[in-house]
Amino acid sequence: MQNRRSFIKALVLSASIAAIGAPVHAADTIKVGVLHSLSGTMAISETALKNTALLAIEEINASGGVLGKQLEAVVVDPASDWPLFAEKARQLVSQDKVAVVFGCWTSVSRKSVNPVFKELNGLLFYPVQYEGEELEKNVFYTGAAPNQQAIPAVEYLMSEEGGGAKRFVLLGTDYVYPRTTNKILRAFLKSKGVKDEDILETYTPFGHSDYQTIIADIKKFASTGRKTTVISTINGDSNVPFYKELGNAGLKATDVPVVAFSVGEEELRGVDTKPLVGHLAAWNYFESLKNAENTAFIAKYRAWAKANGVPNADTVVTNDPMEATYVGIHMWKQAVEKAGSTDTDKVIAALSGQTFKAPSGFTLTMDKTNHHLHKPVFIGEVRADGQFDVVWQTKQPIRAQPWSPYIAGNEGKQGL
């Protein structure tokens, strides 16, 4: 009998030990979707956002998870294929049963998935600057609206401090974000007295690589002697040949400055930036910002990259959409904890007014009605090392205007 009791005790003890060491099952986790292109023309920009999402998820898990559960990342690759984004979004929400999705870069990919999240009542955090003219119940926009990037940048270029630009080249990739942004910018420039003949508007397809003719056209357009600037909404890996050709043509920032809305530290890693010194980018964050939050963010990402075998981990950089991804995940965590649930409607309600001290050094607030962050604006000049020197910034975060006041029919449009 004694031996039998000892055997039973040993069996119970071994079962307990086994349970402690057992792998975490799906029922014990909260699944989180990561929807970014890891191949194709947009991989140059989106891969780093996937990495940032995984970093934030690991960080949250290390601090105890959410509602006592660990987060489990479900990563998919829509491969820069816009219809495939919708297919992968449906898979994440309906099959993988994720509580939230962090993803998309281009507006065409976001437009592709919006109906899916609406139909399935899923939740998407979109981390990239965009053209506005949209407000979805199931989407939170942690990148900039036009009044938090495009409009301030053009106002700066027109100012005496920014060079007093009189002629404008609107150069972009041919899809919804550049075309809608440029529609807004045309209307804004017209309101400032700029004539149509002083605006040159040009588009190229995704993946375009031959910019010789376009650079020649820009040179000709700028030959009048009136100060000319290029506003670039080129997206993805086309930025590499564009900036290389800019350098080859000797088109310097002192002659015709380029301000980019989709080029940051990550895109410049593959370019010799010495000929590009002085060209500009407008964002809500730069890696070069000096503050405690940013120092910690950069150190965490570099350590994560090395630990996870990211290619060229010694030279990884941080950028604006990475910060927006990081802020979004932490705000979602805070909202889930406030709601006590991952239920989409409860989390949407709990996100209203959430705040987070961001790597930009500012405390960002999720607007109570329009699902956008209040964000600071920075304009930076390209340095020889591929980083940016901030030459202008707002004193405080700016409330987003999803509906541009320069587009007819937007009067009175605010929140949801």
Structure description:
Helices cover 38% and strands 17% of the residues. A 7-stranded mixed β-sheet has the order 7-6-8-9-10-14-15, sandwiched between helices. Strands 2-1-3-4-5 form a 5-stranded parallel β-sheet, sandwiched between helices. The chain has helices spanning 2-21, 43-62, 82-95, 107-120, 150-158, 176-191, 212-221, 239-248, 292-307, 320-339, 344-351; strands at 29-35, 70-76, 100-103, 124-126, 139-141, 167-173, 199-204, 228-233, 258-260, 280-283, 355-357, 363-366, 373-374, 378-382, 388-393. It has a domain at 147-283: Response regulator (Rossmann fold). It is α/β, with parallel strands linked by helices and 416 residues long. Mean pLDDT is 92; it is low at 1-25. The protein is built from 11 helices and 15 strands. The radius of gyration is 23 Å and the shape is globular.
